[in-house]
Amino acid sequence: MEDVGRVLNPLVVEGQVHGGIMQGLGQALLETISYDPQTGQILSASFQDYAMPRADNAPEFHTQFNEVLTKANPLGVKGVGEAGTVGALPAVMNAVNDALASGGASEIDMPATPLRVWGALRKTVALD
Predict the structure, then answer these.
(1) Claim: this prediction has a pTM higher than 0.85
(2) DSSP designation for 2
(3) Domain layout of the chain by residue ranges
(4) Residue 64: strand, helix, or coil
């Protein structure tokens, strides 16, 4: 449920929310910033250097809008550009960390890459 003020174009607003959700999923699960330890040069500076979520990675979305008009402008509209991002980050990370906790693993930080998840789970296994 997103409060976007007056919805002037439902298709555009829904697309903005879907894009924000995918941006949040990418930040929570895939995107990491890497630097060269010798030079400080960023190694993940372009879309070729790190994974981004794609449409085939997307879950099914069901959006609803709560039209609470703002008094800040005559149309009652509000910004919606990154609305889905705000909820996606904590929802994804809470789900990941809850799953890890059920396996006895400690919490991890974003991004919850497969390597970080594996590392957290391996720490819970007694090595012989």
Answers:
(1) no
(2) B
(3) 10-122
(4) coil
pLDDT at 126: 55
Give CA–CA dist 69/114, Å, rounded.
42
Label residue 55 exposed, middle or buried (CB < 10 Å: 0-12, 13-18, 19+). Answer: exposed
Please state, in angstroms and rounded to a whole number, the distance separating the CA atoms of residues 125 and 23: 33
CATH topology of domain 10-122: Aldehyde Oxidoreductase; domain 4 (3.30.365)
Q: Which two tokens stand for residue 127?
A: 């090595």
pLDDT tens, residue by residue, 105-119:
999 999 999 999 999
Does residue 60 carry a pLDDT above 60?
Answer: yes
Tokens 């007056």, residue located: 6
Please state, in angstroms and rounded to a whole number, the distance separating the CA atoms of residues 123 and 37.
Answer: 26
Residue 20, pLDDT above cutoff 60: yes
Helix-strand-coil percent breakdown of the chain, rounded to 5? 40, 5, 55
List of long-range contacts for 113-118, beta carbons under 8 Å, 24+ apart: 113/29, 113/30, 113/32
